[in-house]
From TrEMBL:
Upper classification of the organism: Bacteria, Bacillati, Bacillota, Bacilli, Lactobacillales
Protein name: Methyltransferase type 11 domain-containing protein
Family: Belongs to the methyltransferase superfamily.
UniProt-recorded Gene Ontology molecular function terms: S-adenosylmethionine-dependent methyltransferase activity
GO biological process: methylation
Domain Methyltransferase type: 62-155
Domain of life: Bacteria
Keywords assigned by UniProt, alphabetized: Methyltransferase, Transferase
Organism of origin: Streptococcus intermedius B196
Keyword Oxidoreductase: no
A Pfam family: Methyltransf_11
Amino acid sequence: MNAVIIGVAILFFLLFLYLLKQSKQPTGLVGIWMMKIWNQVYFPMVEWAISQLEQQNIKNILDVGIGNGQSTLYLKQYFPNSKVIGIDISKTAITQAKKWNIADLNFELKDVGQTTYSAESFDLITAFQTHFHWPDLSRAFFELRRILRRDGLILLACEWSKLTYFQPELKKEEEFAAFLNNKGLKLVSSQRKNQWILYKIVKKPEGVI
């Protein structure tokens, strides 16, 4: 009996690890299925986060970790005169996202830690329910700072529970602010709604400590 319980526990643990891997980098039919579920669960968070933006004259937008591109499509609809790019490290995700065939809406297979975009390319950079999965958080934020324009904004939103699980050392606002400060970025504000948390981040001027 104990052997059966242990065997079931091992199977559940392996399933958990597999689904966790899929959440980081979706592949195949399981990845496609999971991305559809994410849209249903997390899209209200995307709508809420974007509604908190005050700036309307945004020309170039980068959406990071896009899944099948639903959030990127919404950004294009919300800012119809903008050029919007969505990136992901998953080939499956990008293939699904490219089904949205709209002018000035593009999807590219890229690593957030090394995007290869020119410096100061984007007015707005968004990341929804994804940054806690980035393998090298420091490298990623250094790269986002590089490609963010001087007066640009990084909009970061996710479930609070994901931060407490994946990044407990950064769940306090002062700890996250200190982390960003060392990357040449400044945490302007954070706000909560139910289980969600939203961060607004800007670029510190060169030479400012």
